[in-house]
Design goal:
Largest sheet: 5 strands, mixed
Number of helices: 10
CATH architecture of the largest domain: 2-Layer Sandwich
CATH class of the largest domain: Alpha Beta
CATH topology of the largest domain: Beta-Lactamase
Strand content: 15-25%
Shape: rod-shaped
Structural class: alpha+beta
Distance between the termini: 69 Å
CATH superfamily of the largest domain: PAS domain
Number of domains: 3
Strand order of the largest sheet: 6-8-9-11-10
Helix content: 40-55%
Order of helices and strands: HHEHEEEHHHEHEEHEEHHEE
């Protein structure tokens, strides 16, 4: 059986309040009762001491004395009895004087010089009274004493009146508390219901949700964290959708890239098998088959290489490498390809500059970026620059090509992404994996890679490597 949180809050608030009021009432009632009765006992003690101080012998008291104190005490609703050593009352002139109303235990105590103080007595005087008995012991000899009695009906009425006022105060406080508790509980439950409703929407795949929140309490913090979670889920969903679209595009591209060379190779092989190709064309056919075969191998190797890098299945054999030698190798390998697009590769590097990296992977990084620059540059220049910056080496590959749009800059590192979907002649990285591999390899070297680009101006890749140790210092490079 469900017990709603709203009712739980109300019940908890009322329970705490009732328990607090009950304890407060018990303590307050006991304190007031004790205080009032103690004041009455103190008052009777005070009058008793005054009477004993004014008499020399309880058995020999003048009528004037008795009348004086009777008038004073009657005004305060107090009766007093003077008694002798035999417990006989001496202030009432009757043929047979009555005995003072004390129990044997009390009489023994007062004979021993102890005072008797009873805050509430219900039997001896036909009503509730407070009584005090004081002994008279001149020269160490017990000669009697005085008994003072005061009805406590007025005290009870006072206590009952206080209790009534307290009861009304409790009822009023409970009423206000119920209203306030209902308001606060409803307010908090609504905030929780908003989160529950938002959770249900998220479970149905709707991530366009924002819950209003404040920083006043933990529920507000929960709503804030919930919004943060939703934002991350929304971003993750968008990224998944983006990657899924690119995956589909990649599969379509790969299927096309596979289909074209396979169709070509199949046709040429059929022609060679059936001797349908002239003898003078057979060598060119074999070269074409070889070229298409290598193209397919590159596609497969590029995907395998990416998966190995992504899952950290490769090891880096780092060493100190002169940058000038690497740049010269890159220039030699790609100079013909650059010349085909009427591009010129220029080197600008400090002769003593070195980097601490894996030689083969460094070549792969620079080959990828440089080929990418050649692909998007025509009749321009490709600059390979290297310079020292503290304990790090800064390598730059800059071109004067078509550049990238701002929204494309962050996307170029994603797998399957191709800035120009129409390109198909790039011999390395044509399947949208080249730059994603580059970024992974740079990160494995504890390095940093950035790209700066302007449309129709050119693109610059900036890589920061360590010069001498495996723990590279990452230095941000800003394009001037």
């Amino acid at each position: 059986m469900k017990f709603k949180y709203l009712y739980q809050l109300l019940l908890s608030h009322l329970s705490v309040l009732l328990i607090a009021f009950l304890l407060l009432w018990l303590l307050f009632s006991s304190f007031v009762e004790h205080f009032i009765y103690q004041n009455k006992v103190d008052e009777l003690n005070s009058f008793g001491e005054q009477i004993l101080n004014d008499i020399s012998d309880p058995a020999q008291v003048s009528p004037l004395f008795l009348k004086h104190y009777s008038n004073i005490l009657q005004a305060r609703n107090i009766r007093f009895f003077l008694f002798d050593a035999n417990s006989k009352v001496v202030n009432y002139k009757t043929p047979s004087a009555p005995l003072v109303r004390l129990t044997n235990k009390e009489w023994t105590q007062i004979q021993n010089g102890n005072r008797i103080m009873v805050k509430r007595d219900l039997k001896r005087f036909g009503q509730e009274v407070t009584l005090v008995a004081l002994p008279y012991i001149p020269n160490g000899i017990f000669e009697g004493g005085v008994l003072l009695v005061s009805p406590i009906s007025g005290i009870n009425e006072t206590i009952n009146q206080i209790n009534h006022f307290f009861f009304y105060a409790v009822i009023s406080a409970l009423g206000v508390t119920i209203l306030l508790s209902w308001f606060l509980s409803t307010f908090h439950v609504k905030r929780i219901d908003r989160i529950r409703h938002a959770t249900a929407l998220i479970s149905n795949g709707n991530y366009n949700i924002h819950i209003p929140f404040t920083n006043l309490d933990e529920i507000g913090d929960l709503a804030k964290d919930f919004n943060g979670m939703v934002g991350k889920l929304h971003s993750a969903q968008e990224e998944i959708e983006l990657l899924e679209n690119r995956r589909r595009q990649f599969i379509a591209d790969v299927s096309h890239e596979l289909k074209t060379p396979l169709t070509t190779m199949s046709g040429l092989l059929v022609g060679l098998k059936n001797d349908m190709i002239p003898q003078n064309e057979k060598e060119r056919c074999m070269e074409l088959i070889d070229k298409e075969t290598k193209r397919l191998i590159r596609l497969v190797n590029e995907n395998l290489d990416y998966e190995k890098i992504r899952s950290n299945q490769i090891e880096l054999n780092r060493e100190v490498i002169p940058v000038i030698e690497v740049f010269e190798i890159i220039k030699d390998q790609l100079e013909i390809q650059a010349a085909e697009k009427e591009n010129e590769i220029l080197l600008e590097v400090e002769e003593e500059l070195t980097v601490y990296a894996d030689y083969d992977r460094l070549i792969q990084i620079l080959i990828n970026i440089t080929k990418n620059s050649i692909q998007f540059t025509s009749n321009g220049k490709i600059y390979l620059r290297g310079r020292k910056n503290g304990s790090s080496a800064i390598l730059e590959i800059e071109d004067t090509g078509i550049g990238l749009k701002p929204e494309e800059i962050e996307s170029i590192w994603l797998r399957f992404y191709k800035a120009d979907l129409s390109r198909s002649s790039n011999p390395y990285g044509e399947f949208g994996l080249g730059l994603s591999i580059v970024k992974k390899l740079v990160e494995m070297h504890k390095g940093k890679i950035e790209v700066f680009s302007k449309v129709e101006v050119g693109t610059k890749f900036v890589i920061t490597f360590s010069q001498f140790s495996g723990n590279a210092n990452l230095i941000m490079y800003k394009n001037d």
